[in-house]
Design brief:
alpha+beta, 219 residues, six-stranded mixed sheet, BirA Bifunctional Protein, domain 2
């Protein structure tokens, strides 16, 4: 049995560090030590909008400046709290063996990528996607997405956009439904949403990779 894999977290670390990992920046190889240098050219950054071609920290700040519109009763723009969650991270993948089959077939691979992008747009808004990168240089193909948690009325609220355990579980249900055509099913219902530091972020990526490769990760 093959499972759909979807992780989502509130960003609470330097976006520069995550950007180095996702964008495979030279000089920051320690952030992607499991990547195969000979397969780096297979990676792809989808330009969903104008922000996706910018350095991640600038993409985040520019999108917030563009879309933030939270105002007080006097109609004045509210200052953004220093501890506000400014971005959220997402990892999309699946059980190793099935993902290898998907990756090996160009048409199927493109369809899988397109379906994931469609899912991300529906869930978080096309304008709020500031990174959508396909990684094929590690053991299992996966997608990294970075989104800005802006509500429809222009507030910055990861709590509202991501929701709690119930909402996350329902989102994983929707993701699994979208992945059925690729032979990926819904796994056990678990997980919550939390803040994480840099060490946690990279550990989560490594854990996800190991779990996928063992073909026993539950979405």
């Amino acid at each position: 049995m093959s499972y759909a894999v979807y992780h989502s977290e509130k960003g609470a670390i330097s976006s520069g560090g995550i950007g180095k990992h996702i964008d495979r920046e030279k000089g920051a190889e320690h952030t992607y030590r499991h990547a195969d240098p000979e397969r780096l050219h297979l990676n792809e950054n989808i330009l969903v909008n104008e922000h996706c071609s910018k350095a991640l920290h600038k993409a985040i700040s520019d999108r917030i400046e563009q879309g933030y519109n939270s105002r007080n009763k006097a109609g004045e723009l509210k200052a953004i709290r220093k501890d506000a969650v400014k971005y959220t991270t997402h990892i999309f993948s699946g059980s190793h063996e099935q993902m290898k089959k998907i990756e090996a077939d160009p048409k199927l691979r493109k369809a899988w990528i397109d379906k994931n992008l469609e899912f991300a747009k529906k869930e978080f808004g096309e304008k709020n996607i500031v990174r959508f990168s396909i990684h094929r240089d590690e053991k299992t193909m996966h997608i990294h997405a970075i989104t800005i948690p802006l509500t429809q009325d222009g507030r910055l609220s990861a709590k509202e956009v991501l929701g709690g355990r119930k909402e996350m579980s329902e989102r994983q249900d929707r993701y699994a439904t979208a992945m059925k055509e690729f032979g990926l099913e819904r796994g056990e219902r678990a997980t919550g949403i939390k803040h994480e530091n840099a060490r946690d972020y990279y550990a989560r990526i490594e854990k996800a990779q190991n779990s996928i490769n063992e073909s026993d990760f539950k979405a």
